[in-house]
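Dissemination and training. As part of the outreach component of the grant, students in the summer workshop were shown how a complex can be specified as a set of sequence lines and then modelled as a single object. The example used during the hands-on session is reproduced here so that future cohorts can follow it. Participants entered these lines:
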Amino acid sequence: NAGVTQTPKFQVLKTGQSMTLQCAQDMNHNSMYWYRQDPGMGLRLIYYSASEGTTDKGEVPNGYNVSRLNKREFSLRLESAAPSQTSVYFCASSNTGRTEAFFGQGTRLTVV
Amino acid sequence: AQKVTQAQTEISVVEKEDVTLDCVYETRDTTYYLFWYKQPPSGELVFLIRRNSFDEQNEISGRYSWNFQKSTSSFNFTITASQVVDSAVYFCANNNDMRFGAGTRLTVKP
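and obtained this result:
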């Protein structure tokens, strides 16, 4: 069972470049999330999508955009990458906001 | 923002010791859900437990136990007879904004 699949697993960008992180889940979950993880900061919510067709800002949305393409897929876009966006990014999904989240393997992004 | 606070940044114990990881949450809601996740050195995030605000019964699963006390807004996690494989970062979270605490890094030494 694939669960939550993120691509790519590693990426190095130059300042100002753009890229899209892809996430897909095969559990028919309604809710999907993007987090970033920085040392000592835990997981911080960037954006979430409670259901297909809706997206909302989380704690740290600046510099990011998202698209809930369909029920399975939720992408995160960096339009103009900055060194402060160097982090590990996790995508997650849950059946509802009241149930546990299942996480992808993470994307390690470095912006130089 | 409704915060989740894990005051212990790092804990180090010797194998077979018991250890408790603290979690304090803030919420304005009467109905809410709390979670614990484990992140081993390999980096993936693994769900451990979910508890809703209506159920204050303590939960035990093998060497793991959880103590939920609404009066102190705490949802603490105890590992009994710790093992080296328990070494990981542990996160507490609530479903309000799906907010996570900063995590506690547990190191269990042989």
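DSSP finds no helices and twelve strands in chain B. Students were then asked to discuss how this feature might be tested experimentally.
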